[in-house]
Design brief:
This protein has about 400 residues and is of the alpha+beta class. Helix content is about 45%, strand content about 5%. The relative contact order is 0.12. The structure holds ligand C2E, succinic acid (SIN) (2 copies) and fe (iii) ion. This is Cyclic di-GMP phosphodiesterase.
Length: about 400
């Protein structure tokens, strides 16, 4: 057989070798799923619960302490105002760009620094509030949310203050190219046709074009704009980059982008529960995301992120409030309902870290199965006006 490898059987563990296989004349490979991972739709594919268990095991032991200086309840109030102001600022900035004006980089940095300050006081507040968008607000609030997620992830990865700022700016501007996509496609309430999705795939390049002549915009930000839809297995766009060809910041952008997209209400789909979203991303993650970056992301938002609906061993249902500083499995939870009798119980915030051995999370619950009308109010304490929290 003609092929570029010196062995015909080997452990395929590098993206480079995968690309060499793709580039060679090889038409078929045999995957021994007993010895390693299968492709996602292979017959020996692992079950969803197995993936979730793997993620949990990987993560339980090693979360670095995250000191927070402000409680969730306190920071939420400030974060709501900041979200509202950020949304207005992004609407204005993106509108300017649409009219052909240059983006004011100084203003962007000021906004990113304010969001960073909130994330440093308490990351759960800004990150979780920015998730609560209506589909009309999606494009703008998605920028704010990805900004906050990028900041938290950059800090989790131990990046420098300057790099944290770059990550935040990149998050805020990553989808600016969507301003060049016709509204009928961008806000289409249903599934895109192939032709429409092809148009949509121009948005990374359009974003690059909008920003590239601006000397105050860094190469990192341009790179995230252009490459946040690349996937490590080479199936992304626009350049089909593989593994290490994708920069750290673009890999971070990919993870934060997808998490906020699937947890949000969008014109074409309503948002999923945060813990459910983490589990789905873990399932897709092998082809789409860089594994180390994805793991750091889970450490920064949690396995049961703020706002997740969970069932406790006692049979109570609760909504996750705040993450614990070092353990992903023992957040603070507000209990409010008895699953078996289907009756409300007095609302009470319990700290699972202090109840080890007596109470714990036994799993996620699908909010669709329960129909609680005001779940988000339970953890945020905030009322919404016609569904919007940000005016
Ligand atoms: P977006 O809505 O901000 O989604 C960003 C990325 O999140 C998507 O990039 C995809 O990687 C991931 N994502 C979002 N929803 C799902 C999902 O249900 N399942 C999975 N596996 N991944 C999901 P993608 O696919 O390249 O799409 C780029 C943009 O194209 C989207 O940004 C959205 O604006 C638009 N788009 C994609 N599909 C549709 C659609 O069916 N209808 C409409 N109206 N827009 C769509
Ligand atoms: C899917 O399962 O829909 C594909 C996941 C991905 O975005 O890689
Ligand atoms: C409850 O049923 O106790 C409250 C649920 C909700 O506010 O969604
Ligand atoms: Fe995008």
């Amino acid at each position: 057989m003609e092929h570029p490898f010196w062995k015909a059987k080997f452990l395929l563990d590098s993206a480079k070798d995968l690309q060499r296989i793709r580039d060679s004349g090889i038409e078929e490979v045999w995957i021994d799923a007993d010895k390693g991972l299968d492709v996602p739709d292979g017959s020996a594919a692992v079950s969803q619960e197995q993936v979730a268990a793997e993620v949990e095991q990987l993560l339980v032991a090693e979360v670095d302490a995250k000191p927070v200086s402000t409680s969730l309840e306190e920071e939420v109030k400030r974060a709501q105002k900041l979200c509202a102001r950020s949304k207005d600022a992004v609407v204005a900035m993106f509108g300017e760009v649409r009219m052909g004006h240059a983006i004011d980089a100084e203003r962007v940095v000021e906004l990113v620094d304010e969001i960073t300050a909130s994330v440093m006081r308490n990351p759960d507040a800004m990150i979780s509030l920015a998730r609560l968008k209506t589909s009309d607000e999606y494009t703008y609030m998605h920028s704010v949310a990805v900004c906050a997620l990028m900041i938290a992830l950059a800090r989790q990865l131990g990046l420098s203050d300057e790099q944290v700022r770059e990550a935040g700016v990149a998050g805020l501007l990553h989808d600016i190219g969507k301003m060049m996509i016709p509204d009928t496609i961008l806000n289409k309430p249903g599934k895109l046709t192939d032709a429409e999705f092809n148009t949509m795939r121009d948005h990374p390049m359009a974003g690059l074009k909008l920003l590239k002549d601006n000397r105050d915009i860094s190469a990192i930000v341009l790179d995230v704009c252009l490459h946040h839809h690349e996937k490590v297995d080479g199936s992304g766009y626009p350049h089909h980059l593989v593994g290490e060809q994708i920069s750290l910041f673009a890999k971070m952008g990919a993870v934060c982008d997808v998490y906020d997209a699937i947890t949000s209400n969008r014109p074409y789909k309503s948002g999923w529960d945060p813990a459910e979203s983490i589990r789905k991303m873990a399932e897709w993650s092998k082809g789409h995301f860089d594994q180390a970056v994805f793991q750091a992301f889970v450490k920064s938002v949690g396995i049961y992120p703020t706002g997740s609906l969970v069932r406790l061993e006692s049979g109570r249902l609760g909504i996750v409030m705040e993450q614990h500083a070092t353990s992903l499995l023992t957040p603070r939870v507000k209990v409010f309902f008895m699953a078996k009798s289907k009756t409300p119980i007095p609302q009470q915030i319990i700290d699972l870290a202090k109840l080890v051995g007596r109470e714990k999370i036994v799993g996620r619950e699908a909010p669709e199965d329960w129909n609680f009308p005001r779940l988000e109010e339970l953890w945020s304490g905030l009322p919404s006006k016609n569904g919007s929290y940000f005016g």
